[in-house]
Amino acid sequence: MQRASSGALALCLFGGLAACYSDALTPTNPIDGGVAPAAASPLPCDVDKVLAERCRSCHGAKPAFGAPMPLVTFDDLRAPSKSAPERSVYELVKQRIHDDARPMPQAPNARLNPDETATLDGWIVRGAPRGEGTCTQGSTTPPPAPNLVPTLSCPTPGATLSPGTPFSMPAGVTDLYAYYGVSVNVGAKRHITAIAPVVQNTNIVHHILLLQVDAPVSPTPTTVAPAGKMRLLFAWAPGGKALDLPPNVGFPEEGTAHYVVQIHYNNLAGLPNQTDASGFSTCTGAPREHEADVMAFGTEAFSLPPRTKTAKRCTVEVPADYAGLTLFSAMPHQHQLGTSISTTLRRGTQAIDLGTRSPWNFQNQEWSPIAAVTQTGDKIETRCEWVNGGTEAVSYGEKTLDEMCYSFTLYYPRRTAPDWSWDVPAKATTCVDE
Predict the structure, then answer these.
(1) At what angle do helices 89-97 and 114-125 cross, to 10 degrees?
(2) What are 73-85's pLDDT values in tens digits?
(3) How many domains does the chain have?
(4) Most CB within 10 Å of its CB: which of 50, 73, 155, 373?
(5) Same domain flag for 7 and 129
(6) Residue 152 lies in a domain
(7) Average pLDDT for residues 361-372, to the nearest whole number?
(8) 82: domain range?
(9) What is the Cα–Cα distance from 389 to 132, expressed in whole angstroms?
(10) How far from 321 is each of 100, 374, 411, 417, 420, CA to CA, in Å?
(11) Residue 297 falls within a domain, yes or no?
């Protein structure tokens, strides 16, 4: 399960690949500005400028955030790709900049504009020729390094969530998920007011999730997902922002709070001896006016037949005791068979978007701002689509190979009724097949 926020930043382009971006803040991988070495084979200046401004904060001379290759020299673009050695890197560039389902640059970063796209397309159509002469702009003046790993808005963290021991990336493995638990002894009640990632190894970290659980989980990283229900608090991918709650709102912590950190690692480049101790840090303070919480719209009642496209539309009506809730951020969530998800609040003829991802991309999940206050009788509708190309049916579940149809939604004031749970709205829906 997962989530984050938005931001538009320079990034990467490709191919078997990682969510790429970078920040010159970690000793494990100082980021090159992306200037081609003087002795390297030249790229055309207009192509070099696009790559420098939009790609090399991941795909620099020292690739970062799981990016499998540099995009700095002519020879880099002509090399066989890591994920499909029968194809050149430049061929995958063209594929991914036009891929609506898995685009590069990846969200939350903006896609290439029409002029940038035309520059790369035109060069590739001409056979990706070598450049001539010396560029007078573009890569000779690299852009400032973007701040792709955000920092907290407070001077001192209230807590830092990190593993008991660093995770070691197994040799020969290119892609995996790791999990570890953190318990925070709080004592008197306080509020979390902001959350930011702490990225220790930019070489292999693809994205990170923070989830809340009811019981402690081992602090030793493992590739086995913890059992039991987890609810998403925050998700970050390179280029995403920190989560800063509204000034009058905070997540409550009291006694001992239990969390799980899930990290997606990508090492398609095959870097040896990679370890990581990434996690999160939080700003905390005195309780604010309102306590925030997470609820999930959607459904858990579905089964996806093999070799079939499935679509469900699920609706829950807001009862009187759920009126007056302020909904302020949403993170739609499916797994790897999902193709689209949207949630809409319907009030008479009025329709308010509560979060849409079409197409859905499992690799890029983020919080997006929404604005709605619930009223009695509102109908909140979530529509999910999946394509199951496998040979077995797939149903709801916590594992990555299971599926989900949730729209995680931040709201206040937090419900405290004895029968309340974050997944009550999803369990109360009525669904129809489409």
Answers:
(1) 140
(2) 888 888 888 778 8
(3) 3
(4) 50
(5) yes
(6) no
(7) 85
(8) 1-146
(9) 47
(10) 41, 10, 15, 10, 12
(11) yes
| Structural domain includes residue 153 | no
3-state SS assignment for residue 52: helix
Specify whether 1 is located in the same domain as 100.
Answer: yes
Per residue in 204-254, pLDDT (tens digit) is: 998 899 999 999 999 999 999 898 878 888 988 877 889 999 999 999 999
- Torsions phi, psi for 316 (to 5 deg): -125, 135
Cα 245 to its chain centre, rounded Å, is: 18
Residues 212 and 236 in one domain: yes
DSSP state of 378: -
Could you tell me the CATH number of the domain that includes residue 340?
2.60.120.230
CA distance 341 to 338: 8
Q: In terms of pTM, does the model score above 0.90?
A: no
Which of 201-210, 256-265, 308-317, 378-387 has the lowest average pLDDT?
Answer: 201-210
Give me the mean pLDDT over the 295-300 stretch. Answer: 96
Q: Using an 8 Å Cβ cutoff, are 264 and 221 in contact? A: no
CB-CB contact of 358 with 340 (8 Å): yes
Look up tokens 């709102």; give the residue.
249
Whole-number Å distance between alpha carbons of 409 and 368 = 10
Residue 255 CB: number of other CB atoms within 10 A? Answer: 10
Q: How far apart are CA 290 and CA 270, in angstroms?
A: 47
Asked if residue 151 belongs to a domain, the reply is: no
Q: CATH code at 241?
A: 2.60.120.310
359-368: average pLDDT: 82
* 179's tokens: 């999990």
Last residue of a domain, one of 289, 306, 334: 289
Helices (H), 106-253: 114-125
